[in-house]
């Protein structure tokens, strides 16, 4: 069984997806969640922080993609997972191995079958560039 923090990250991805798809009510997802308030608050914090940093995160992700890809070419779910993963990588409070592993696991659960290696590679590049 996955941890409550993992479930909160799933909720954060759902919120990011919903927002990018034009929903004006992502908060309904929080209200429908079966997570405790502690974890819905964590998901909402992740959503708000990622949403407020999209330009910065997208720049880091774009610089970490190979020249054949653009961030716009990625699927909405993959973009949301990469944004969350990059955000967590750039935060000092989350170990880089945990951030990357969580993003890869999220991609296994929520994205295309080809997404995990892409997510892993891009976030590893983000990690390396942040360490410089």
By DSSP (H or I, 4+ residues per run), the number of helices equals: 7
Name the CATH class. Answer: Mainly Alpha
Radius of gyration, in angstroms, nearest whole number:
14 Å
Largest sheet: none
Number of strands: 0
| Mean residue pLDDT | 91
Order of helices and strands: HHHHHHH
Uncertain ranges: none
- The name of the CATH superfamily reads NusB-like
Our measurement of the CA-to-CA distance between the termini, rounded to an integer number of angstroms, reads 36 Å
Question: How many structural domains in the coordinates?
Answer: 1
Structural class from helices and strands? Answer: mainly alpha
Which fold does the CATH topology refer to? N-utilizing Substance Protein B Homolog, Chain A
The CATH level-2 architecture is identified as Orthogonal Bundle
Q: What is the overall shape? A: globular
Fraction of helical residues: over 70%
TL;DR of this structure?
The protein is mainly alpha-helical and 132 residues long.
Account of the protein in words:
The longest helix has 17 residues, at about 5-20. Helix 1 (about 5-20) packs across helix 3 (about 35-50), helix 1 (about 5-20) crosses helix 5 and helix 6 (about 95-110) packs antiparallel against helix 7. This protein has helices at about 5-20, 25-30, 35-50, 55-65, 75-90, 95-110, 115-130. The protein has one domain (about 5-130): N-utilizing Substance Protein B Homolog, Chain A. It is mostly helical and about 130 residues long. It is globular.
């Amino acid at each position: 069984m996955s941890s409550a923090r993992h479930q909160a990250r799933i909720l954060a991805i759902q919120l990011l997806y919903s927002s990018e798809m034009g929903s004006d009510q992502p908060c309904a997802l929080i209200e429908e969640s079966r997570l405790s308030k502690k974890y819905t608050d964590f998901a909402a914090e992740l959503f708000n922080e990622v949403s407020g940093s999209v330009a910065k995160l997208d720049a880091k992700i774009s610089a970490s993609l190979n020249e054949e890809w653009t961030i716009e070419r990625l699927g909405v779910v993959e973009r949301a997972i990469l944004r969350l993963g990059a955000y967590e990588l750039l935060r000092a409070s989350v170990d880089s191995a945990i951030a990357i592993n969580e993003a890869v696991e999220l991609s296994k659960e929520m994205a295309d079958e080809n997404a995990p290696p892409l997510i892993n590679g891009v976030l590893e590049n983000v990690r390396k560039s942040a360490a410089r």
